[in-house]
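User: Could you check the structure of this?
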Amino acid sequence: MRELFWQVVQAVALLLACAAILIALLWAMTALAHAHFADHEQWAQLTPAQRDWLTHQKIPGQPEYSCCSVADAEQVEEDILGGHYFVRSHTTAGLWVPVPDEAVIREPNKYGQPVVWWKFTDGLPVVRCFSPGAGI
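Assistant: Sure, the predicted C-alpha cells are below.
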C-alpha cells in the first residue's frame, strides 16, 4: 500500500512539473509575440509603395526566393568598414554584425532607411537580405 502511495505522489509531481513547464512556455510565447508586434510598429506609417517594396524584395542572386515580408524586416543602423557593410539593431543587442556581400540588395531603397531581413541560425541573427539606406 505504501508503494502505491509513493507511485501516486510521483505521478502527481510529474504532472505538476509538466504543467509548470507548459505554463512557462505559453507565457514565453505570449511575451515573444507581443515583443514581435511592438517591434514592428515602425512599419505602421508606411505608404503603399513602401509596403509593396518591402514585401517584394528578393534574395540577391536567388530571385525565386523572397527576403520575406514587412514583418521580418527591421530598420537598422549601418556602417561601412573596409568596403563591407555592418549593421546593428535591437535584434543584435546593439552589436555590429557583418553583412555578407551576397546579401546586399543593389536596387534603390524606396524606404530610404537601411533595412535588414533576418534569418536565425543556431539562435543567432544572420542577415538574409540588406538594403542600404539612401545616405550611404
